[in-house]
Amino acid sequence: MLEKIEKLTAEIESLQVANAEELEVLRIKYLSKKGEIPLLFNDFRNVPNEQKKEIGQKLNVLKTFATDKINALREAFDEKKNDDDTIDLTRSAAPTPLGTRHPISLVREEIINIFSRLGFTLAEGPEVEDDWHVFGAMNFADDHPARDMQDTFFIQRNPADVLLRTHTSSVQSRVMENSQPPIRIICPGRVYRNEAISYRAHCFFHQVEALYVDKNVSFTDLKQVLLYFAREMFGPETQIRLRPSYFPFTEPSAEMDISCNLCGGKGCAFCKNTGWVEILGCGMVDPNVLEACGIDSKQYTGYALGMGIERITNLKYRVKDLRMFSENDVRFLEEFESAH
Ligand code: DAH
Fold first, then answer.
1. Are 186 and 124 spatial neighbours (Cβ–Cβ below 8 Å)?
2. Nearest ligand 1 atom to alpha carbon 168
3. Ligand 1 close to Cβ of residue 140 (< 6 A)
4. How far, in whole angstroms, is CA 141 from its chain's centroid?
5. Residue 282 Cβ contacting ligand 1 at under 6 Å
6. Per-residue pLDDT reduced to its tens digit, 105-158
7. Strand 204-214 versus strand 162-164 pairing type
8. Burial of 15 (0-12, 13-18, 19+ CB in 10 A)
């Protein structure tokens, strides 16, 4: 009997199972009513009295050991089974939701692409600027209203005025100061103005500036580039119209309208029945600006143009409220998913 108990103990100790069926077979073999251990208990009757105490104890230990072992195997097996259930290896990896690009970024890239096809290269300048690069070198009179606190955010007043640039024309002066013609640059960036915020004005917005300075640059060159830009941006049917205007840094100056891209020029509420919408300012670089930046105005001429990116974006996507651009409302931003 003792031998049998020892043999069974060793056997049970080394038990391994691969699945639930195997485990059940073992449970029946050792622990069911007719299993090996209950049969030993049946034989216990025949054990001589003087051995009953010792053998009885050992039998009980064996039974507990076998029960624990079978339970432990079942638990290990159940855990494995649960793991298998939660990991579905046939499922595709968790999808990472893709963000969308901001409409201002989309339009900025498009403008840059159009100009880079004409040989313009990217230039950037600081948003925190000084009076000279924003106004002085750009031929603004000392008493020009743009220099007023009402229009411009000043960080530090005299002696050296430090301010937030009000236009990207400041990049023109920085580039011309540091290089000689031919200069052909496109400068996108954020600008700041001291405006009350409403659906059509904001204290910051974005502009793109283009500048071309070389020998024999004429207004005709400017006009051709403007027409190319308008048609690339708004479609091949687009017409342009130039109206005389004034900017301190260009002479002559003009504002450009495109034929209304909503009604095709017939006249609608959007273009106030004129058939035209304004999109940018431009002109021939004033010789004073060239000279202020160290470029010989007798040898070189140039043209410049500047436009608001929000304005172009409005024309392309009809965003009615400027504030939408800076509110980060995901529902608005997701609208531009298909524009990528
Ligand atoms: N700087 C002007 C503005 O902020 C836009 C502009 C007009 C830029 C004419 C130019 C230009 O380069 O030639 O309104």
1. no
2. 1
3. no
4. 41
5. yes
6. 999 999 999 999 999 999 999 999 999 999 999 999 988 888 877 789 999 887
7. unpaired
8. middle
